[in-house]
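Key result, reporting period 2: structure in, sequence out.
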C-alpha cells in the first residue's frame, strides 16, 4: 500500500487530528504513517489544553519516516511551534507532493496557532505547498483582508499563490445565503464549488478529513484537481448533509449539488436552464423535478437567486458602475440587467445602491 505521512496534532475524541487522519487514509486504501506535533486535551465542547512536543522530537519522527518509508505525499496540519515549523521545511522538502492545511482556527473560531507561528508557516511551509487549504476566515487573518465576494476569494488565492503555493483551495465563503462556496485556484485555472449544506461542511473534523483524503489521492498519483474531486466525493458520502440520501435518494441530492456547483462556476456566462441541464446530461424537465423535490424552487429561480446575491454584493461593496456590474454578471445590456434586477428586488440597481 502507498504510504501517506500526516504531521499534525492528536485529538483524543477521534474527530480530527492524527486519529481521524489514520482512519481516512486507511479507508481510502493508503498506509498511514504519522508524526505527532501536539497532544491535546479535548472533548465534544472543544480543546481544553494543548501540549506541543519539542521540535527535535517532531523532526526525528518525520526524518525517520522520510528516510525509511518515503511517503508518496505529506500532509502538514497543526504545527504551533516556530522552531518546529522551520525544521519541518528541511525535512519534507524532498517530497514532491506536500499538502499544507495549517488550521489556524478551530471549527469554533478559536485561534489555535500563535501569531509568530502563523508567520513562520507563511515563510517556511506555504512556499513549499503543492496545495494550500485554508478557510476564508483563516485567509482573512493571514492576509489582513476582508473576503466577502467571489472576487475577494480570487484575489486572496492569487495572493496566496504569489507566496509560493502551487495551488490553493479556499473554503467557507458565505456570499450566498444558506450556501458555502469554495474556490480552487492555480495559475491560469480556477473553479468554484458550492454546497447548500453549510452545517455539514462546518462540522468538527470535516476540513481535516478533506485535506487528508486529497493528500492520499495525490500519493496515489492523481493530479491536484483530480485528487480534490475524488476526495470531495468521498467526504460527500461521509457527511450528514441537510439534503440526505436517506430521505431523498442519492442521485437527486447529487444532481442538485452538482447543479449548484455549476451555477457558481458559470453564472457569469450562462443564465439559461438548458445550459446547466446539458452539462448534467439530463433534460430541463428532469432538472426542474430535482430542484422542486430538494428545495421547492425551479432551476430558473435558483439561477436568479445566485445572480441577485452577487448583484447585491457588488452594488453594496464595490465601486463598479452599474454598467460594469451588468457586464460582470454576464448581461448583454445594462437595460436588461436593470429589468431583471427590478423584477427580483422591486427597485432599480441605482435605487438599491442609494438606499
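The corresponding designed sequence is given below.
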Amino acid at each position: 500500500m502507498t504510504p501517506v505521512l500526516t504531521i499534525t496534532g492528536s485529538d483524543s475524541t477521534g474527530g480530527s487530528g492524527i486519529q481521524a487522519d489514520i482512519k481516512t487514509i486507511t479507508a481510502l486504501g493508503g498506509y498511514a504513517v504519522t508524526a505527532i506535533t501536539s497532544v491535546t486535551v479535548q472533548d465534544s465542547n472543544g480543546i481544553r489544553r494543548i501540549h506541543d512536543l519539542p521540535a527535535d522530537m517532531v523532526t526525528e519522527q518525520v526524518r525517520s519516516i522520510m528516510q525509511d518509508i518515503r511517503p508518496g505525499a505529506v500532509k502538514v496540519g497543526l504545527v504551533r511551534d516556530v522552531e518546529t515549523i522551520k525544521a519541518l521545511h528541511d525535512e519534507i522538502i524532498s517530497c514532491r507532493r506536500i499538502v499544507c492545511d495549517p488550521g489556524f482556527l478551530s471549527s469554533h473560531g478559536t485561534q489555535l496557532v500563535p501569531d509568530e507561528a502563523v508567520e513562520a508557516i507563511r515563510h517556511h511551509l506555504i512556499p513549499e505547498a503543492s496545495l494550500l487549504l485554508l478557510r476564508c476566515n483563516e485567509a482573512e487573518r493571514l492576509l489582513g483582508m476582508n473576503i466577502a465576494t467571489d472576487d475577494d476569494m480570487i484575489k486572496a488565492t492569487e495572493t496566496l499563490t504569489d507566496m509560493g503555493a502551487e495551488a490553493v483551495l479556499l473554503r467557507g465563503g458565505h456570499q450566498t445565503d444558506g450556501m458555502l462556496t469554495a474556490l480552487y485556484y492555480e495559475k491560469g485555472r480556477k473553479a468554484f464549488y458550492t454546497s447548500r449544506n453549510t452545517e455539514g461542511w462546518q462540522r468538527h473534523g470535516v476540513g481535516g478529513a478533506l485535506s487528508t483524503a486529497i493528500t492520499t489521492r495525490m500519493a496515489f498519483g492523481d493530479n491536484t484537481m483530480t485528487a480534490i474531486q475524488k476526495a470531495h466525493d468521498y467526504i460527500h458520502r461521509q457527511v450528514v448533509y441537510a439534503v440526505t440520501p436517506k430521505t431523498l435518494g442519492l442521485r437527486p441530492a447529487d444532481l442538485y449539488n452538482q447543479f449548484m456547483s455549476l451555477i457558481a462556476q458559470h453564472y457569469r456566462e450562462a443564465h439559461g436552464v438548458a445550459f446547466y441541464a446539458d452539462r448534467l446530461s439530463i433534460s430541463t424537465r428532469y432538472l426542474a423535478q430535482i430542484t422542486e423535490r430538494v428545495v421547492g424552487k425551479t432551476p430558473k429561480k435558483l439561477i436568479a437567486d445566485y445572480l441577485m446575491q452577487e448583484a447585491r454584493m457588488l452594488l453594496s461593496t464595490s465601486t463598479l458602475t452599474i454598467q460594469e456590474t451588468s457586464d460582470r454578471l454576464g448581461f448583454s445590456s445594462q437595460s436588461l440587467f436593470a429589468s431583471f434586477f427590478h423584477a427580483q428586488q422591486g427597485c432599480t440597481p441605482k435605487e438599491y445602491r442609494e438606499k
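The chain is about 50% helix and 15% strand. Residues 299-317 form the longest helix (19 residues). This case is discussed further under Risks and Mitigation.
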